[in-house]
Design a protein that fits this description.
Strand content: 15-25%
Mean pLDDT: 82
Radius of gyration: 22 Å
Number of helices: 10
CATH architecture of the largest domain: 3-Layer(aba) Sandwich
Structural class: alpha/beta
Shape: globular
Largest sheet: 8 strands, mixed
Oligomer: single chain
Low-confidence stretches: 1-26, 48-56
Number of strands: 8
Length: 328
């Protein structure tokens, strides 16, 4: 019996040593998972009522630097916000760039509180979150200018890496809807494309990965009238519309060696056809690029009617994807 208990003790000791070694090697990732879990459990245990659910859509306010001008075009300053790291890493801070949506016409760089548990948890592990603005469409469509704004944000990050301690080998971009479209244009195009500010033009714009939420990849497939009067009217005043749509469709920028991409899209999206994402996925595979497609079953374009299973799949996949592509 003593030998039996001694054997059990040795077995348990081996398990503890193996587990301890695993936790040591992956200690940053384990900490990240636990931190994010705790953040979301707070919301789960104290869910907002129907009267204050809008609080989750209010902007994050815990930024370290607000409205930094990254470029000035003809007297129109464009700004970004920096949510700095809460831990110093020896190789510098990985960067997640957030590009807002809004049909290219609406929206701003504010990050909604609903995303804050995820972003704050990454900040706790040494990440920097940057949210950028781009020039919104008014009377005329200018996808070229908007793409150069996002790309110039990336160039600004490279230019200022020593000032803010950025690790420019670890830059990821998250875009939603039109922001995803511009993110893909910026990430898939070469450094020579979409140059705006001459003071930034000599800096690179490379990124490691892209997360595309409901992004249009083939503009010729869209019914722009569903995006609102402002955009539809601006497009109607544009010459050579179909040529413009093809020119600024990310699907036409695919080639080998592109950043790893996670595509998130719903089959029931009535604004951007789901086929935009399946086409991007299939063609990316043809070029041997690393790409993943997360299909939501019931959500609308604005994540309305999203069900519990989709929420769990979405949160898990995005977290796993970022952690997999992080240096932690």
């Amino acid at each position: 019996m003593k030998k039996f208990f001694k054997g059990i003790l040795v077995f348990l000791l081996i398990i503890v040593l193996v587990l301890g070694g695993f936790l040591f090697v992956f200690r940053h990732r384990v900490s990240l998972y636990v931190n994010i879990g705790k953040q979301y459990l707070k919301i789960k245990d104290n869910p907002p009522s129907s009267t204050d659910v809008s609080s989750l859509l209010t902007p994050m306010e815990s930024m370290d630097f607000k409205d930094i001008v990254y470029k000035d075009t003809n007297g129109v300053p464009l700004t970004l916000d920096i949510y700095g790291p809460r831990k110093k890493l020896s190789n510098g801070s990985p960067v997640i760039l957030y590009v807002h949506g809004g049909s290219w016409v609406y929206g701003d760089k504010s990050i909604p509180q609903a995303i804050s548990p995820l972003f704050d948890s990454f900040r706790d592990e040494g990440f920097t979150i940057i949210s950028t603005s781009y020039e919104l469409i008014r009377k005329t469509v200018n996808f070229d200018k908007q793409a150069s704004d996002v790309k110039d944000t990336l160039r600004w990050i490279y230019k200022n890496k020593d000032v803010y301690g950025f690790n420019t080998d670890e830059i990821g971009v998250i875009g939603t809807s039109s922001g995803a479209h511009l993110s893909m244009l910026a990430a898939y195009s070469s450094d020579e494309d979409f140059k705006g500010d001459t003071a930034l033009s000599n800096y690179p714009s490379d990124v490691k990965y892209v997360i595309d939420f409901f992004g249009p990849t083939d503009l010729t497939s869209l019914d722009m009238s569903t995006a609102g009067w402002d955009l539809d009217n601006a497009i109607k005043t544009t010459k050579n519309t179909q040529e413009m749509m093809r020119k600024y469709s990310p699907i036409n920028y695919l080639k080998e060696g592109l950043p790893e991409t996670l595509i998130v899209h719903s089959k029931k999206d009535e604004v951007v056809p789901f086929s935009n994402s399946t086409l991007l996925y299939e063609k990316s595979k043809e070029y041997n690029n690393k790409v993943e497609l997360l299909t939501l079953e019931n959500s609308g374009h604005d994540l309305s009617d999203v069900n519990r299973d989709d929420v769990i799949s979405l949160a898990t996949k995005v977290l796993q994807f970022i952690v997999k592509n992080s240096p932690l």
